[in-house]
Amino acid sequence: MTTKVLIIGAGAIGAFYGALLEKAGAEVAVVCRSDYEQVKQHGFNINSHILGTWTFTPSQVLKNTADYQGTADYVLLCTKVIPSVDRVALIRQAVSANTAIVFIQNGVEIEQEIVDAFPDNEIISGLAFICSNRTGKGEILHLAYGRLALGNLPGFVSDKTAYLCELFRQAGIECTTTEAIVTERWKKCVWNAPFNPLSVLSGGLPTLAILQSQEAFVRSIMQEVCRIAKATGHQLRDNIVDVNIEHTYKMPPYKTSMLLDYENVQPMETEAIIGNAVRAARREGIETPYLESVYALMKLRELKLNA
Description:
Number of domains: 2
Distance between the termini: 52 Å
Number of helices: 11
Helix content: 40-55%
C-alpha cells in the first residue's frame, strides 16, 4: 500500500524532502501558496549538488490544507516557526486518527504546542542539517549536506518513525532516528544561534566570511548555547563547538535562511532560534551576554524591517 504524505510549507526544505519521499515511492502532496501556479503547472525543479537534477511532480498541489483529498499517513510541517503562523491551525484539517505529525523546523523549545494540540497522534520531531535555498518559483537548490534526525516526542522511536527514516535513506539521504531528539535540537542551535543572526547583522555576509572575521565571537555564542542546553538537561559533546567550526570552514559559501528572509522582507525566525534560547537561559539562571546582545540587535533589525 502506497504511503501518503502531505507536505505543508513546500519551500527550500519541504519541497526537497518531499521530492526525496516521492523518489522512494511515496505519494506526496504539497500545500504551496506563493508558488502555487508554477508548481501546479510544472512541478518543482530540484537541483542538488549531491543527488543530481530532477523534477518533482506532487500528486496534489494545494493552496489550503483543507483541500487535501485522502488520508495522510504523515503530515510534514516545514513552515518557518514565526509568531504570526498558527502551526496547529495549519495542520489540523489534515490530521486523522492514524496520521503521524512530523515537523521539520528550526528552533528550540518549539514542541509543546503541537504535543498539547494532538495528544492522541504520533508526534515526530525532525531536524534538517542542510544547505538548501529556494532560488525562484518552484526552484530548489540543494548545496550541501541533507542529513535528517527524527524522533518521537516525548522521547522514543516508533515503527512509523523508523519506516519514514528508511524511505529517506532509500532516496539517497542520510537519516537517523534518536530517542533524544530534543538534545539534537540544542545541538543544531549551536550552529544556528550565531550564523543566522550574524548573517543579517553583518549586512549579508556568507557564513565563511563571518567565521574568518569573527571566529572568537562565534565560538562565544556557541559556548553559551552549550551551557543553556546543559542546564535544561541536554548535555552536548565537549568538542561540539570545534566540530561546528571545522564543518563551517568546509562548507560552500552559504546564505542562511534568516538572511534570505531578511533580503526578501519576510518574517525571520528570531524567536524560535534565538529568543527561545535566551528565555531558557533566563529561566535556568544562565548568563548569556553574547546571545542576549545578538537577540537585542535582531529585535532592532526587525523594527527596521517592519518600519
